[in-house]
Design brief:
Blueprint (H helix, E strand, L loop, with lengths): L4 H17 L29 E11 L2 E10 L3 H9 L7 E5 L2 E8 L2 E10 L2 E10 H21 L5 E10 L2 E10 L3 H14 L3 E6 L21 E7 L2 E9 L5 E9 L4
Antiparallel strand pairs: 1-2, 1-7, 2-6, 3-4, 4-5, 5-6, 7-8, 8-12, 9-10, 10-11, 11-12
Length: 262
């Protein structure tokens, strides 16, 4: 591996783990307009016998512009990993994530990650390319936006995850925050923050389950893990969900979606 690649891999490790751990990428979480103006992506050659599937295209994960492609191979994980190691013949870092194998390497100002997970009749693959130069450019803007959210919420609130993307003009964003405050205080604070952004409360949904969820889980509009408040503002929609995580912390997920203008 090139000398600069290992520090890069460490720098992006936490966010990549969050991104790659999801089975299907919570990509109902779409994003700010600048997500569509991403740089040229390096090509990643795939084995001839794979079937590809879409996992959301271009999006932002914790401020990192990312392109992702999924595939299914009839071969075992070790065989697929060996194929990638020789196409091209480059020094890949190899990491184990539970039952999955993750290959990673730097290419210019991009970092390429390939997650290989064994499935019943072969291997499921997920290729992710991160534009590190663009991430560095966007970092101050994203940090300012997230800091603004934190400043409007109760004391001790921390950002756990941020996802964003642009799907044919359908812009949306997903934010996960945690704190030690009460549900009532969190609802009041988030409602005030969204109202300040031009939203109006549409309705409130009662919890559909008493089970706890992890702080990185995306809430489903049909089955929110806790109390959900829906908001509306013209072509914009938002949903905030409030629940207790497995560690006892209060978890807040905020999804905002803006439909393209007709």
């Amino acid at each position: 591996m090139h000398a600069h690649a290992r520090p890069i891999a460490k720098q992006f490790s936490a966010a990549l783990r969050t991104l790659l751990a999801a089975t299907g990428f919570a990509l109902v979480l779409l994003a700010p307009s600048q997500a569509g103006a991403l740089a040229t992506w390096p090509p990643v050659e795939l084995p001839a016998d794979v079937q590809t599937f879409d996992v959301g295209g271009d999006f932002l994960s914790n401020g990192m512009p990312t392109r992702a492609t999924g595939f299914i191979s009839p071969r075992g994980t070790s065989a697929v990993a060996d194929w990638f190691k020789s196409h091209p013949a480059a020094n890949w870092s190899v990491e184990r994530m539970q039952e999955a194998t993750v290959l990673g390497r730097a290419e210019g100002h991009h970092f390429i990650t390939i997650k290989l997970t064994p499935v019943r009749h072969g291997t499921r693959g997920l290729v992710s390319i991160v534009d590190m130069a663009k991430a560095a450019q966007e970092a101050p803007r994203l940090q300012a936006r997230l800091a603004q959210w934190v400043s409007e919420l109760p004391s001790g609130t921390r950002v756990m995850n941020h996802m964003a993307a642009n799907d044919a003009g359908r812009l949306s964003e997903h934010l996960v925050l945690v704190n030690q405050q009460s549900e009532a205080l969190n609802i009041r604070s988030v409602t005030a923050a969204l109202v300040g952004r031009g939203f109006a409360v549409e309705r409130t949904l009662a919890p559909s389950s008493t089970k706890t969820s992890s702080a990185t889980s995306a809430a489903s509009p049909q089955q929110p893990p806790g109390k959900a408040v829906l908001f509306k503002s013209g072509t914009r929609e938002a949903m905030a969900v409030f629940f207790r995580g497995a560690d006892g912390q209060s978890v807040i997920t905020i999804n905002t979606i803006t439909q393209a203008q007709p």
